[in-house]
């Protein structure tokens, strides 16, 4: 689930800030205001998958503390499919500590861990066309029976943490109904969230397109409203395809060496069919970029093989997915298809494990000669 002193809130800002590439949040300091006026709010945009790109809630909280003056109101805008639950809980608690200064604003979607984080704010305002989604925590794991039992216990505990987060926002909500909604994966409109006490106000609806990178992830939820999926299908990239990107000339010798590095690396990992894809995606920029792409592709391949779905490797690598995102997709695919899980008690081979010697068929002539030699030795006095 891999689950805010009142002041004037504008649901639509003159120009919404874009979250930087490969980052799921952006924090903007309060603007310098004129004397004897209300302080301008600190603006935070959580417009991506919480915990994505290896950026944790610890960094989010650190950045927030560095910019917070302890006086300015804080407005946190959400448009997220969710992400890491523990990061979501950490953000929930961080926003809660800000007290009445903090308002959460759901611009389009606060799902899963995103809804947990948003409910930490003192006041929560939803756009009239926004949605809030709650569901059970889930994870991907491996191990023996005791390991799996411990993971199940942790999931039960995190379920209670999710319930506590929503109840802290809506203390009058019926506990049985809340647990049912979480178990059933429930998508709430702004009016439904307001009626339950999870939202405090319904604002003006604005069109906020979900990030293209989140579209495929949204499809893995069981009850995603078709209207949202249709909206994602209608999206087009912001870049103008008619404008060719600037190309930086590469050193021919360096690019050849990097291409060879990809070819050899793919052959060693058993993914030779992906060599051209990695050459195109990395643009042979530098050795670090190439090595990172090889490592990521190998990780994706290993996960697909472990799930008995190696044919999906190329699709996931072409999509640029990280292994954690692939792990989540494979889990959902196995569950949705009813295939279940296969338990493999063997250990994966080490990278430096020597190649096994192939067994050879017995040679009848050698066996007969050896038996005669042994017989002759036994006959001697």
Describe this structure in words.
With 381 residues, the protein is α/β, with parallel strands linked by helices. Mean pLDDT is 76; it is low at 2-20, 236-250, 340-348 and 355-359. Helix 9 runs parallel beside helix 11, helix 10 crosses helix 11 (287-306) and helix 11 runs parallel beside helix 13. It is built from 14 helices and eight strands. It has two domains: 25-233, 2-enoyl-CoA Hydratase, Chain A, domain 1 (Alpha-Beta Complex); 252-337. Strands 1, 2, 3, 4, 5, 6, 7 and 8 form an eight-stranded mixed β-sheet that branches. It starts with 24 loop residues before the first strand and ends with a helix.
- The quaternary organization reads as single chain
Order of helices and strands: EEHEHEHEEHHEHEHHHHHHHH
Q: Largest sheet, if any? A: 8 strands, mixed
Regarding CATH, which class of the largest domain? Answer: Alpha Beta
Residues in β-strands, percent:
5-15%
Instruction: Give the % helix.
Output: 40-55%
Number of strands: 8
């Amino acid at each position: 689930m891999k689950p805010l002193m009142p002041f004037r809130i504008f649901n639509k800002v003159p120009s919404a800030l874009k979250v930087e590439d490969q980052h799921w949040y952006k924090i903007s300091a309060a603007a310098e205001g004129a004397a004897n006026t209300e302080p301008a709010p600190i603006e935070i945009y959580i417009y991506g998958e919480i915990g994505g790109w290896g950026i944790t809630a610890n960094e989010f909280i650190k950045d927030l503390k560095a910019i917070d003056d302890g006086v300015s109101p804080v407005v946190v805008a959400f448009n997220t499919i969710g992400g890491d639950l523990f990061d979501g809980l950490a953000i929930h608690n961080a926003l809660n500590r800000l007290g009445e200064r903090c308002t959460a604003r759901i611009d389009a979607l606060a799902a899963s861990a995103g809804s947990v984080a948003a409910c930490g704010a003192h006041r929560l305002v939803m756009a009239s066309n926004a949605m809030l989604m709650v569901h059970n925590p889930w994870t991907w794991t491996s191990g023996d029976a005791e390991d799996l039992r411990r993971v199940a216990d942790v999931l039960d505990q995190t379920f209670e943490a999710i319930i506590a987060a929503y109840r802290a926002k809506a203390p009058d909500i019926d506990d049985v109904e809340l647990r049912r909604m979480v178990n059933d994966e429930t998508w709430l409109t702004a009016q439904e969230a307001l009626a339950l006490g999870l939202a405090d106000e319904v604002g003006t609806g604005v069109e906020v397109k979900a990030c293209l990178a989140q579209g495929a992830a949204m499809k893995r939820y069981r009850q995603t409203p078709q209207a949202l999926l249709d909206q994602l299908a209608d999206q087009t990239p912001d870049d103008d395809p008619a404008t060719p990107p600037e190309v930086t000339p590469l050193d021919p010798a360096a690019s050849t060496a990097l291409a060879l590095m990809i070819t050899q690396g793919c052959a060693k990992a058993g993914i030779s069919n992906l060599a051209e894809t990695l050459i195109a995606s990395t643009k042979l920029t530098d050795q670090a970029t190439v090595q990172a792409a090889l490592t990521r592709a190998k990780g994706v391949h290993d996960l697909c093989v472990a799930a008995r779905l190696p044919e999906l490797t190329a699709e996931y690598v072409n999509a640029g997915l990280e292994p954690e995102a692939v792990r989540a997709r494979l889990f959902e695919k196995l569950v949705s298809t009813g295939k279940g899980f296969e338990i493999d008690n063997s250990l994966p081979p080490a990278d430096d494990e020597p190649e096994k010697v192939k067994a050879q068929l017995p040679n009848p002539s050698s066996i007969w000669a050896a038996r005669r030699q042994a017989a002759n030795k036994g006959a001697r006095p």
